[in-house]
Amino acid sequence: MASQEPICQAVNLSDGQPCTAIATTWENLFCRFHGKQCHGLYIGYKRRNARLDALSNSAPPYLRTSKVPLANDTFTNVKDEKALRDIHAHLYQEYVLLGKVIDARRLHHKHFYPLKMDYGHQAYLDTLSSRRHIVLRALERLETRTAQVLYEKEKWYDWVREVQQEEEATREKESKKVKLEAAMFKRHWNKMQARLRAQREKEEKRRQDAYLEAAYQERMSALDSEDDAEMWDPIEDVVEDERSRYIDLIKHFLWMDVLSDIDENENPSQKPVDSSGPSADTEKPAIPEEKQPKKSKKKSKSKATKGAGASSSTKSQKATSSQNKQANQSGTTGQNRIMQMIEGEAKLEGEHSEPDKTNIETETEMRKRLKEGVEKNYDDIEGPMVVGTIEVPHGTHLRTAPLADEEIDSLMRDIKEIKLLLFCRLLLSHASLLPAAVRASSVEDFLVDPQIAASDLRDLCLEVEQPSLQDIRDACADLVRGDEPEDEDEDEGLFEEESFEDIILQEHRYGHLQDRDWFLKNMLAQRQKLMNNKEALAKFKEYFRKKNRKQGKMKIQICGKSIWNYSSEKSMSRDGWLQFSVMAKDCDLKHAIQLCRNWDEFSQLDFLTVWQYFPASNWVSWGSDRLTQQLHELGFFPYFKDFEAQKLSRYVQVGARSQLRRHHNIVEARNIIVGHMRRNDSVTRRFLQYCAMRTGELLLLVRDGKTGKIITAPQQGELWTIRHKEGLGRASKNEWEVALEVGHDYFEMVDIVRKWRLGFEDYYEVWLWDFAPASDPIPLYNVIISQLRKAWRVTKPLDVYAHREPFLRGLTRDKETLRVRSIRPGEQVSSLWEDVTNPDNIFFTADVVNNKVLESSSLTQKGTAPNMFYNEDDAAEDLILFSDELISPNRNVPFKEISNSITRIETTPATMLNVLASSARKLSKPSKNKPGLYKTNGDDIDSGTDGDDEKRIVNPWSLPQIWEDAILTVNRSQVPSEKKQLLRRVGLLSESSEAIRGGINRLDDLESTLKQADKRMIMEKDRGAACVEAFHAADLEPGAQEKYAETCKILGGILESHLNTKSTDWVWSIVNILDWLRVRTDYDTYTYEPLAPWPHPFVTQDIVKAYVQTAIFFPNLEQCKPMVNFFESKEGSEYKDTLLLKPHERAKTLPDCRTRSSFRYRPKEFWKEWEAVLKEAKANSKFYADVYPIKWNVAIRPMIAKLYLAGVIAPAYLQNSPYVCPGYAVANEEPHRPGKLDLFMDYADRHNAAEYPPTIPGFLTRDQFPVLLPLARAFASKHSSGNNSPRFAVLRVWSAPHFYPAMVGEWNRHATAFLDGEGRTWIWKFIPKDLPISEWSMYNTLKLRLGLLKDQLAVGERVVHRNEVILVMGLDETDLLKHVTAVTFAIQTKPWHREIDLWKSFVNVDLAFLEGLDPYWLD
Which among 220, 309, 317, 1222 is placed 20 to 30 Å from 517, CA to CA? Predict the structure, then answer.
């Protein structure tokens, strides 16, 4: 029976299917055909083994004599080209023979003994495979050595080697390549059907020939020879077929010889439905067993792959997508997800892999896709979409717009060329293929080169099938690159060096947020700088460059194509990105933006995507929701946000009256959004500055993407985004426990969960979160959008498109297909800009605050919303905040935190000590860069220096030059004993030298003093100087700053001038004053008592300065001549006619500033207009800022900005609500200044926002202050005589129009908080004059200070004050000089931030002068 006949056990070589013929040969194991094949394989295998053995005996001399194993030999000792060729020929022959032996043995076992388990067979194959691998790597090293010998003079050799070494470092293992190859053939199975049919026809023909020759073979069986068997050896056909398969696939990938074209002519019904893989009825390809992927018992782990090249399977992508969906469904998103990741309860997500690029389209398929359009993918949309806008018209929201035939033809031509360029660039990484690629004139010539091994073609085929997105981008850019090399930006990637002081300040302030790498790198740079090692510093900077500099720009010819040795660093054109989007059709824009070289390219790509320029289905979800799209339009690109604060927050409290025990469970969360903005951009700077001034609404943290430096951040206590308190008892008595705060961990976790990232570093990382917890997210979004509009200076809706005008003018939209495309040269069509500016367009703007929609056109505005767009009060404020924009239109400006003298002393203790120590170190070495820090001894008379090389260092411990000259004169003269006793009493006499002490002017003395100095004293001294600087910067009185500058020049000129007379009477006058006040100059201790004016080591400096300030007004006294004579000198002659010395003329002009009356002393009529504003807001249920008069904002916002820049006020960490802030900023006029609006504070505190003490000990109203003029008259009446006429001085302690020079403690600043016309919250750091108790506060401060010298000054009789005005009365000029100097000294010494305002003071005047003064001067 036929069923009992033995069946051939062989497997067909062509399709891998079992043979069904009857077994008649080899003991009924095989049919005749397979018996012949089996015998031929066996004979051929034996013959090739013999040739392989014989080959070892004929090795070249180098290989026979080399003592280095072939696996380790680099052939560096071979320098002759012929010897290298001989070695290569031998190794290549051995490599080919090994391959054939291995393949024949595998084929023999697999196809003829598939069921037989032969472990010896497998062990032998493993030995041969290992030997073949060694020979292959030796061939690669030999190719490298040969190329070095032949091409080392070529410019391109070095960078080719770099590419090859990089490829070798990341080379896949052979086993993985085999699996990848099997998967590749499986994916392209349908494309290989034509080749398989040809193989079957060839094998069937041989089968028929075998039957026809069967009779002859039986007769000649005895004469069956080896030569006859060789005719049936199929191994050569197998090897050639394998090579051809790789070549055909490469041509298919490159659109050179498309395999599917053969199938398209066949019956369509024969094609399988599923294009991703073979169907159940389709035959599987004949893939060797070892090349088929094996199933692993372990769970597959998805490995992260960054943009360059590693491919990911579809399964891993599905798994990742599944995990993300499960995370979303379980609610672990946003900040909840971050907390779980920090606590280790959630798995860390890896990098997002590249999209699947294995489904390579044919040209026909791509044409069809572009012609018909594809359905858009909106899977990642997170918010509402608006359809029917000018960006997304009706008809384009579901499918991409079709392309015109002409545009498709152009794209196809370009893509074909790009594929060839991509292939040539991939060849650079293959050392064994490079010589053939250089020789070949085209890709076709390269592929038919017989010297190319099949394994190399396999590796190349795998790369061509799945190139990385970076490779595709580079190839698209190569298409339009010219012959000239690109200009390199020398500043790009440079290490940005910081000063030593900036590094220390940064670490002190933001060390808890700052990356440690930033501090270490900058400190190392400073170390090299201090060591004056320029070469090491240059190497250090080069090492930390963000990008490797290109060592040389050159081209190489690969397969007839010119390839540059570096990827294009320029922005790719819109046509290039169009080609990229078509080729990488499954790519998401989130992957594409990582390939952008700079912010301009990234911004352009986003813009083109919004306007639907790219026919890619996965690109439309980028920023398509309206909220995100608006942020993108204005240059803010969020990558993490959590607006679930209301959902996360809860307030559970059980009171004492409940049946349960009092307990609480409270959770507070804040909404947060994180995004990127352009670095060093004026728009970014304005936006960030606006946000930094709105701490009552949102909080801001900015990180530099290039350096990692924290540029600004809120105070430590406001970094939290989730906090909770839980327990028994009252919630108010329990402390908050922070569950999540912005910091290192938060940064890292957000970077992990983010869905996209930039491929460059030219950006700022901007973190914004709500100030008030459990808030609705819309107000936060609204504030961000409004501030972005103002940063772009958008005055109407149409202005949003203004900065995109150049791009819009180059694009047009097809009226039929609605396809957006580039306008061709010379084409007359309507541009998108013309469409946008069409007068018929209507713009709708939602006013979230007032719950209405505003309608406007490009020409008219039918409604206005306050604070929604940029207006005149914003412009007025910008003139102050960004005054540099008036001078230079440069947009490349970095954002910097507002820095002034006050912020410096608040953020860094003892800054003067730090700076002085740094200066001392620098001065220890000769330097020509700091000539102003010291003066040579030859130009200076120094009582403590003898050598010519000594230098006088100006420092806080050094004495004025005029004093140094005077005491040197005294020391050179004979000092009477009674005067020495006087000097001893005031601490000026040195017991060792019996001379008056000099200042600390030498470096050694300075270093010793710095080490021993009290740090708190240094801090207070530095704080005093900082306050004075801030006070005058915040003085808004017209001309006041110029007058103060003139005063400083006069006093500084006198103090630092050399003594112009030998008279030393003024020295003894000062000594007598010190003795009279019982004050010493040699204190070596410092008092921490805030009210105590001494002891401290700066008494001499302070008394000398006070004396000089007073003496210039006593020209008739001999002891004042050295000061008065300054105006006759060359340096002082320009100030000879200054109004400072003309009190009668100064008294005629009153200061052009507001009065100092506080809120409670102003009449009700003064606040009438402001009360009407509040009444209107209440009647219409609006926030006061929505009805705040614009003219008021125009007037006072620049004033507030000046106070802010000076450091006198600061944004408050208080919610912008009248229930929290007690004050309002109001603009108004005063009768003496009609038409001039000024800044006033309403501290009525209608909602009891601040707590004030019910009673203040010693409080006086201003009506209870002394009246000065009657006291002067009484003194003059009592002490006048014929020869003696009393003299007077009216001293006014300096104060600004809006505040007194008295610091407010941090614990009291809430009482000074106020809201401005924009709804921003501010606090005063110094007592505002509008504060209800401000007059008494200043009066009491002076009362306490003058009271310390009550007996000496006869306070109440000779010295009387009213508010900040002090009346000093003297019997004569000498007596007045003594008293005025003492008062000035007492006021200006410790804590060193109060001054006598000489321009508003009148010294050495008579009673008639006082009686003629305007009452303002004495009030």
Answer: 309
Identify the DSSP state of 1308: G
- What span, in angstroms and rounded, lies between the C-alpha atoms of 590 and 380? 11
Phi, psi of 471 (to 5 degrees): -65, -40
Where helices occur in 1180-1313 by DSSP H, the ranges are: 1190-1206, 1268-1279
Cα–Cα distance between 382 and 385 in angstroms, integer? 9
Give me the pLDDT at residue 519, please.
79
Q: Does residue 198 carry a pLDDT above 70?
A: no
Three-class SS state of 352: coil
pLDDT at 692 over 90: yes
DSSP for 71-122 reads TT---TT---HHHHHHHHHHHHHHHHHHHHHHHHHHHHHHHH-TT---HHHH
CA gap 1388, 1394 in Å, rounded: 5
Q: Does 1309 score more than 90 pLDDT? A: yes
* Tens of pLDDT, residues 25-58: 877 778 877 787 777 777 777 787 788 878 877 8
Contact 967, 998 (CB under 8 A): yes
pLDDT in tens, 361-372: 888 889 999 999
Closest CA to 1300 of 1337, 1347, 1332: 1337
Give me the torsion for CA of 180, 184, 186, 192, rounded to 10°. Answer: -150
Quick check: helix, strand or coil at residue 1389? Answer: coil
Q: Are 898 and 692 in contact (CB under 8 A)?
A: yes
Q: Report the distance separating Cα 781 and Cα 234, nearest Å.
A: 73
Note whether 1029 and 1070 are within 8 A (CB).
no
Task: Pick the closest to residue 334 from 671, 824, 839 (CA basis).
Answer: 671
| Residues 354, 306: Cα–Cα separation, whole Å | 8
Q: 169 falls in which pLDDT band (50, 70, 90)?
A: low
Tell me: the pLDDT tens digits for 1194-1244?
999 999 999 999 999 999 999 999 999 999 999 999 999 999 999 999 999
The token pair that represents 1220 in the structure block: 């929290």
Query: Which two three-digit tokens encode residue 966?
Result: 């005077």
**φ, ψ of residue 960 in degrees (nearest 5):** -55, 145
Residue 1148 is classified by DSSP as H
Concatenating the DSSP letter of every residue in 690-714 gives: HHHT-TTTEEEEEEETTT--EEE--
- Residue labelled with tokens 């430590």: 716
pLDDT at position 223 is: 38
Distance of CA 479 to the CA centre of its chain: 33
CA atoms of 907 and 510, how far apart (whole Å): 10
Residues 6+ apart with CB under 8 A from 54: none
Q: Among 263, 321, 602, 308, which Cα is nearest to 466's?
A: 308
User: Which residue matches tokens 């090579």?
Assistant: 243
Residue 1141: exposed, middle, or buried by beta-carbon count in 10 A (0-12, 13-18, 19+)? middle
**Dihedral sign of CA atoms 656, 657, 661, 663 in order:** negative
Looking at residue 831, what DSSP letter applies?
B
210 within 8 A of 32, measured Cβ to Cβ: yes
Measure CA of the first residue to CA of the last residue in the chain; give whole Å.
Answer: 136
Which among 294-308, 311-325, 668-682, 995-1009 has the top mean pLDDT?
668-682
Token pair in block for residue 1299: 């505040």
Gap between the Cα atoms of 1252 and 1331, Å rounded: 11
Q: Which of 122-136, 188-202, 1120-1134 has the highest mean pLDDT?
A: 1120-1134
6-20, 214-228, 280-294: which has the minimum mean pLDDT? 280-294
CB atoms within 10 A of CB 1195: 20
Cβ contact 246:196 at 8 Å? no
Q: How many CB atoms lie within 10 A of CB 296?
A: 7
Give me the pLDDT at residue 14, please.
Answer: 65
Count of C-beta atoms within a 10 Å radius of residue 616:
24
Q: Count of CB atoms within 10 A of residue 548's CB?
A: 10
